[in-house]
Design brief:
Number of helices: 16
CATH superfamily of the largest domain: Type I PLP-dependent aspartate aminotransferase-like (Major domain)
Structural class: alpha/beta
Largest sheet: 8 strands, mixed
Number of strands: 15
Distance between the termini: 51 Å
CATH class of the largest domain: Alpha Beta
Number of domains: 3
Helix content: 25-40%
CATH architecture of the largest domain: 3-Layer(aba) Sandwich
Shape: globular
Length: 496
């Protein structure tokens, strides 16, 4: 029996001018709602007095309708509690699943959806995501997050809450946070921007979607790193763009190969500081080559700087946007990796001449970001907590990354080749000997989930037919003490 949800009045209309008596109209309306599953077994029904007052009619027809529904078994009365939808529905309801939408019939007519809705694969949670274990990807060290500091800032915000905070905010985001982000990007990432160019968004995924809506038309060619980030692939497929996979080598995106494949592409998506999934850093010569190509072809560069704060063998590499003199780069970053994923806050540094267009499109989609987390995060940055947290996390991730590299070399060095371990929160482990089918890494990832390992397979990140086998291993959420045992479980899975 469904849990009681209170006597909420369903929408029932009566027509006093109709030939059908009022009691019969009320009876028919309730019966139809029950048969359709809109009123569930055990759900409380308003009293006859409440319904009569709501409909503005005499109580008598309501009493008559309720009596008929009770007699036929659609309603049941409980002494001292009221009237409820019956828990044992009559035989006429055989086959109806209470509370569930019914499947459309053949007579329901065409049920068309937009082409962009079917351009991407159906949403599924693969086992390596559903079962969170060691090496889970894109998960920061939440156990090391400064909960007390954050909670105090939230409490302070709540105590001083102003009416203005309850109103719709500006589409570009809260001014205080935009100022804080702009200052951070200029200092730490070498980004050329002012607060007026910063738009606050709900993570890098929304930033990519907004960029596609503003810059790209259906059919436009877009370069993508090969292999690349699967969610970006889906976003651009939904925008009905033509995806051009451009190979990545140890210098990053191969610009010359991109020009051979499609010189007149409209845009390129690139993560130059820490390519996903291989983790390589784009060389200075490639960066300059990419900027020259974009300027010559009038193309846009979408730079995703998703976890560039973490670099372990050198100082952080400056942004590609910082080299751009022609305002061709749309720079994107996120706080999901450096703070916590459910924060859902990211940012875009927009070229000045595009700010108005981005604002217009943002306002047409979700109006503005939520005020609470913006205000708290602005204080978190302004009071120095963000900088201190980054310094602590760099040390912690360096330790965890070292433990993972050492364990792989000790336990499975012959089976896996490590690449991209110099930065970020993940590394890529390429399988040296590809055994079995072309989906060996996927099969192993499914099995690994049963052993509390979250191994993201490498092969699904490729758009083309040539797919390397391997795993993307996150080390942000796996402590250094846990790593050796987890790698031994991985080694057991890799054995024939």
């Amino acid at each position: 029996m469904a849990a009681l949800v209170g006597a909420i009045s369903p929408i029932i209309a009566v027509d006093r001018k109709a030939l059908t008596p009022l009691y019969a109209q009320i009876y028919a309306a309730y019966r139809a709602r029950i048969l359709a599953g809109e009123l569930q077994a055990g759900q409380q029904i308003p009293s006859t007095r409440e319904l009569a007052a709501e409909l503005g009619i005499s109580r008598i027809p309501v009493l008559d309708a309720y009596a008929q529904l009770l007699a036929e078994g659609y309603f049941e009365s409980r002494v001292g509690s009221g009237t409820f939808v019956s828990g044992s529905l009559p035989g006429g309801l055989d086959g109806i699943e209470s509370g569930r939408a019914t499947a459309p019939t053949a007579q329901s007519g065409p049920r068309r959806v937009a082409a962009r809705a079917i351009a991407i694969p159906p949403y599924e949670r693969p086992p390596w995501i559903a079962h969170r274990g060691a090496f889970n990807l894109s998960q920061p060290a939440l156990d090391a997050f400064p909960f007390r500091v954050w909670s105090n800032l939230v409490a302070r915000y709540s105590r001083g809450l102003q009416v203005g905070a309850l109103q719709y905010g500006p589409p570009m985001g809260l001014d205080e946070l935009r100022e804080a982000v702009a200052g951070y990007l200029r200092t730490a990432r070498g980004v050329h921007c002012e607060a007026q160019q910063i738009m606050i968004v709900s993570g890098s995924q929304q930033a990519i979607d907004l960029s596609a809506r503003v810059l790209l038309d259906p059919g436009d060619a877009v370069w993508l790193e090969e292999p690349g980030y699967w969610l970006i692939q889906n976003t651009l497929k939904a925008a009905q763009c033509r995806l051009v996979p451009v190979p990545v080598d140890d210098e990053g995106l191969d610009v010359a190969a991109g020009m051979r494949l499609c010189r007149k592409a409209r845009a390129v998506y690139v993560a130059p500081s820490h390519e996903y999934p291989l983790g390589v850093t784009m060389s200075a010569s490639r960066r300059l080559q990419l900027l020259a190509w974009a300027q010559s072809c009038g193309a846009w560069i979408i730079e995703d700087d998703y976890d560039s704060e973490y670099r372990y063998e050198s100082m952080p590499v400056s942004s590609l946007q910082g080299l751009d003199r022609e305002s061709r780069v749309i720079y994107i970053g996120t706080f999901s990796k450096v703070l916590f994923p459910s924060l859902r806050l990211g940012y875009i540094a927009i070229p000045p001449d595009l700010v108005n267009r981005f604002t217009t499109v943002r306002n047409a989609t979700d109006i503005c970001p939520s005020h609470l987390h913006q205000a708290v995060l602005a204080e978190f940055i302004r009071e120095g907590h963000f900088a201190r947290h980054l310094r602590r996390m760099r040390r912690l991730y360096a330790e965890r990354r070292h433990a993972l590299v050492q364990s792989i070399q000790t336990e499975v060095g012959e089976a896996l080749e490590i690449i991209g371990a110099e930065a970020g929160m993940h590394l890529c482990a390429i399988m040296r000997k590809e055994r079995g089918s072309g989906h060996r890494d996927v099969e192993l990832a499914v099995k690994a989930a049963l052993h509390k390992l979250s191994l993201w397979p490498l092969s699904p990140c490729y758009l083309g037919r040539r797919k390397r086998q391997g795993f993307i291993l996150g080390f942000g959420n796996t402590s250094a003490d846990e790593v050796p045992a987890a790698v031994r479980r991985l080694a057991n899975l890799l054995r024939p």
